[in-house]
Fold this protein.
Amino acid sequence: MRTRLSILIRLELRSPGRQVFRGSGQLYNVVITAHGILMVFFVVLPRLVGGFGNWLLPIFVGASEMAFPRINGIAFWALPVSLLLLVDSRLVERGAGTGWTAYPPLSGMRGHPGISVELVIFSFHISGARSILGARNMLATTMNMRVAGMTWLRLPLFVWSIAVTSVLLILAMPVFRGAITMLLVERTGSLVFFDPAGGGDPVLYQHLFWFMGHPEVYILILPRFGIVSHVLAAGARKPVFGYVGMVFAMAGIGVLGFLVWGHHMYTVGLDVDTRAYFTAATLVIAVPTGIKIFSWVATLWGGVVRFRAPVLFCVGFLVLFTVGGVTGVILANAGLDIALHDTYYVVAHFHYVLSMGAVFGIFAGVYFWFPKLTGLTLSEVGGQAHFWLFFLGVNLTFFPMHFLGLRGMPRRIPDYPTIYRGWNRVASFGSLISVRSVVVFFATVGARWIYGEKSRGNPWTREWGRTAQTLEWRLPSPRPAHTFIERAPYAVDWAQPREEKTAGLLPVKEVLWTLTRERKEEGRTTATGQRVPSFLLRRLTRTQQRERNNANATVKGFFTIASVSKGGPGLGFGPLALPLGLWPETKARRPWAHRRSSTVERGIEAPEVMVRFLPPIGCLS
């Protein structure tokens, strides 16, 4: 439905003059309103949070089911009711042409005297209620149903993204529901909140709406952050770079998202000091977003990447999100935004960041977890064709809108001067390519659903090695209705990197996992299995390859501190061991840590390895 509406919009704008809507500006605005509301509240949010969140969250935390299954069912069945009310609003009288923001006075009785706006308000209310119920359910599952040994800094990044998203929904959605309730009361004539004729202030509604609206942007963005992190880590055959930094970046985005709503309102007459604050705050929120971009690039850097369909969609997401982020920094400047606010430059920015970026994240998750969801494998040829057609189509559609906005083409208007005809034709042609890519996707899924071969275990193990072995791949495909009914495995059983043994080297799995299990049974928590920064890992790997037959103190792909009995020199990385939760001991306390030479470099045989575990400072994996 949303795709059909977007095609109608592009067919209307392919040439100046009357096209599809026969010059009816109201009908055009009705279609624009339905397109925006469907995209935000009924496509991206239910699929990323409700779909992937409800399906993957219990598996990733080792739970058998969500904390409150009946609440989950209520939230699910409220969605079609809300959608039905929205569809009905288009068919009542002239329809609701308020835009997806429903600004008064256009959404007031003088702008829309019928009941179409009331139907939209009721649809918003039901959609907001189901979002709050689902968010509380996911947060309760994450906090109370984690498997033994899964501390907060061992949670998968997707679980972190869902947890932060749930907090944003619980805090932001009630404010929005209060705003539309005030609008509904005003439309009945009982009280006045936004009508200037009765002493109201229409700018108040914009403050209330965007206090929810800007966190809503991150509500739609954060789950795809988690999906992209999982897929890129598996595709690059290495852990996500900077796990702790990624976690705090998501938390920082959630906090700062409530402090920057005013950059949507530069044109309403804010004073200079207020605009200066929102400009600075909006630029600050680009910092944690940039951290995530650099972490994803660093994850791919140096990895053995095979560009299968899920990885391609993740790379496409990085490109689109980066372009949208750069234009967002431009629009954060109040002076520039006043000139560009009501032009197609904002339309291009919004679709690059939110719409197309979210859809690319959804497709990456679908291609990656489709074997787990259905037990069938998708065609790689169909996935590649879908990606390239879709990537070409969306860029041809939305990138020319930057040029149209810079030249002053206004949005929300179905007609335009002939000077804008060229780029509009390019955008309309790109939308047709995007539709063909969607046809390719459904054809690929349908063909595999009918004739596809069954998935045997984890299909990505053959492609990308054992880095794709997270907890969901321990279950049969498709997954059962209830998972881990008896006992989920310890977190350290599946969160560790793969075991690698080489000649003359100590198998780290036998040392660390045994001590972990013993200390867990004693009721004490340990921090084992933590990875090291890549530069240190490469240095250790080169050293062990040079001296592998003489050393018994380093392990390929892992970091262990060795010491030598009777006061021999240690590895020489003592100061670096403390942040990793490990510290070397020797029987004779000789101050060896400052020495440049190490046991491995000097070729000294290490007859005894002693490892002492400290309380965890933070997981670096």
Q: What stands out?
A: The longest strand covers residues 582-584.
